[in-house]
Amino acid sequence: MTLHPKRRYCFIQRALARAESTCTGTPGHPAQHWRASRQCHPSWTIARIGLGVFAEAIGTYMATVLSGLAIHAFIVLGLTCLIFARANPLKYMHQMRQALMTAMGTDSSSATLPVTIECATEQGGVSKKAAGFVLPLGATINMDGTALYEAVAVVFLAQAYGINLDLGTLILVAITATFAAIGAAGIPSAGLVTMVIVVETVNGTLAATPGSPSIPIAAIGLIVGVDRILDMCRTTVNVWGDAVGAKLIDRLERRPQT
């Protein structure tokens, strides 16, 4: 007999719930370890909340990350370029368009570096001295888009597992994500690797409260499927931040000494 997909799903859910209630398991019993590993696995989270609800949550997560990156790129970095570097951010972004498109295509700040230097010096009017110092340094440690992404991702994973983070923990997430992003390599999906540091830091804070749940490292697998799209956008923001920094340093160099 063939079951309808919805009935099959309900049947599996009831079977798992029955196994949960009957297999109490004693310390060291295989059933106990089976339940623990099952609940920590990303597929169990998807099965528990439903595929439709999970897809909606992933969509909200992606929209949050993309909105944050857009605000940072156009408002924060744009105003920095306008006020401090005294340059038109839209015009400068147009001059850096080849580097930004290369960053989106390669997902790597390091691979984009030669194009970034060329665009900044030949089209953006940045001196070779400022570009040669700021841009290689920025491609290594200036990962502002990655820091924003990691902070949002960890909060999303905590919510997916029903963990509420207080204000102090959220501030800790922001600080840890900033330092973790500095240590991220300029290669595709490097943020997924350094995100482990942020997750472990949050778990250390949660462990201070007896009985508080933690975020499994395997939970990162929930967002791997959409990471490529977000990686393209955050790498573009990283390169744009490097370019704005080079423009700012170039203006400070050219400013008359008083």
Describe the model.
By secondary structure, the chain is mostly helical. The protein has two domains: 5-40, no CATH class; 51-258, Sodium:dicarboxylate symporter (Proton glutamate symport protein, Orthogonal Bundle), CATH 1.10.3860.10. The protein contains twelve helices and no strands. It has helices at residues 5-22, 30-40, 42-49, 51-83, 89-95, 97-106, 109-122, 128-141, 144-160, 167-182, 190-206, 227-254. Helix 4 (51-83) runs antiparallel to helix 9 (144-160). The protein is elongated. The termini are far apart.
Summarize the structure.
The chain is an all-alpha fold and 258 residues long.
List the helices and strands and how they pair.
Blueprint: H1 5-22, H2 30-40, H3 42-49, H4 51-83, H5 89-95, H6 97-106, H7 109-122, H8 128-141, H9 144-160, H10 167-182, H11 190-206, H12 227-254
Helix pairs in contact: 4-9, 4-12, 6-7, 6-12, 7-8, 7-12, 8-12, 9-10, 9-11, 9-12, 10-11
